[in-house]
Design goal:
The structure holds two protein chains of two kinds. By secondary structure, chain A is an all-alpha fold. Chain A is built from nine helices and no strands. Chain B is elongated, with a radius of gyration of 26 Å. The chains are: A mainly alpha, B alpha+beta.
């Protein structure tokens, strides 16, 4: 259902499945990050986190534009229709992205894990044979550097900050890391996307690269026991996000709030 | 938490200017946070932070003048045209018309 009279392209092609998953991860994690605006621990952190939230939504916008790629005349309305006009089961983000912010330690743990994942994913997509995808990935990697620096700053500080900060980070990571494996679930048409060269690597290799990047940092910080095993399965509660199955955290919390204005004012422009 | 002074350059050929302060635990964190606290709207091309405690601050009473230094200030020469006219009239009144003939120095480009 779209609120405006706009024919969206077929979203089931391999390219659009892949790009929607990337865009939806950015939109939903950005939306969750925005919950800290006005209530972050300090003014400076409030501004930093708000920027990270805005960047997520900005990046989603750019990926949605690639999903549309010339299929609609009104790109802005098309992006709104993709970001806000789909039913909950048409969103392809991983479930870890839709979890509520809980406390700041959980938020930082998720921020750190998602950013390390995004860094590895963008690095791989920079080699895509799809020139638009490769070019956008290169651009976003540069933007993404700030997110990584910010996340690593907090991570290091909490680790060195004494018993309570390190314990709270540990609790956050213990909740995030198993669910983060849902990020690596393939979209249905992944094999075709890899064969086409759109995806330079499949989800198994992507997960290996992410572990290579994250595991040493987790080990140095004293969290070796939290590093997911190479063959660990996605917990049932966080599985199948890439296929459109979402929890109440999305279906009755994020989605109604995020899409309400769009649904109540069909065709509105802002 | 410490206070940091934040400086930024609007363009590469512009000097570093003070843009404000922020609070952060150390310089590393201050550098990360300064970007969004003071430069989130493209306010510059480069920035730097400095702990406020590293500022050597002069005793402010040294800037409080006890004597008239208006002769050093541009504002001390305001109303010059009226003063000059009054001086001419006083010279005429004393029969010193020759003073009137003396060319009045003019600033390059127009009236002083």
């Amino acid at each position: 259902m779209t609120a405006v009279d706009l024919a969206l392209p077929d979203l089931s092609t391999p390219r659009r499945q892949v790009l929607l998953a990337i865009a939806d991860d950015a939109l939903i994690s950005g939306h969750r990050a925005s919950h800290w605006t006005g209530v972050a621990p300090s003014l400076e952190e409030d501004l930093a986190f708000s920027t990270i939230a805005q960047a997520g939504i900005n990046h989603a916008d750019l990926w949605y534009q690639l999903v549309l790629a010339g299929t609609v005349d009104d790109v802005s309305a098309g992006v709104d229709a993709l970001g806000l006009g789909r039913e909950p089961d048409a969103y392809r983000h991983a479930i870890v992205c839709e979890r509520p912010p809980r406390d700041f330690a959980y938020t930082l743990a998720r921020h750190w894990v998602l950013d390390r994942f995004e860094a590895v994913r963008l690095a791989s997509l920079a080699d895509s044979t799809d020139r638009d995808v490769a070019a956008l990935s290169v651009k976003l990697r540069h933007e993404h550097r700030y997110h990584l620096e910010h996340a690593q700053l907090w991570f290091d500080r909490l680790v060195r900050g004494g018993d309570e900060p390190a314990e709270r980070l540990r609790d956050g990571l213990a909740q995030v890391l198993p669910e983060a494996l849902g990020l690596f679930e393939p979209v249905e048409a992944e094999d075709q996307a890899v064969a086409d060269g759109l995806l330079p690597i499949g989800h198994t290799q992507l997960r290996e690269r992410w572990l290579e990047s994250a595991a040493p940092l987790l080990e140095q910080a004293g969290f070796a026991d939290l590093v997911p095993a190479a063959d660990a399965a996605v917990p049932d509660a966080a599985a199948l996000g890439r296929r459109g199955c979402h929890t109440d955290d999305f279906v009755v919390d994020v989605w109604p709030e995020m899409t309400r204005l769009y649904r109540e004012h069909p065709g509105a422009r802002w | 938490m410490a206070t940091f002074e934040v400086f930024g350059r609007r363009k590469w050929d512009a000097p570093m200017e003070h843009v404000g302060i922020l609070h952060a635990p150390d310089a590393e964190a201050a550098l990360v946070l300064a970007r969004e606290t003071h430069f989130r709207h493209d306010e510059g091309v480069e920035y730097a932070v400095c702990p406020s405690e590293h500022f050597h601050t002069q005793d402010p009473t040294l800037l409080q003048r006890q004597v008239d230094i208006s002769y050093r200030l541009q504002s001390g020469y305001s109303g010059f045209r009226d003063k000059r006219e009054a001086a001419r009239q006083a010279a005429d009144a004393r029969g010193r018309g020759d003073l009137r003939e003396r060319p009045v120095p003019r600033r390059h480009g127009g009236e002083a």
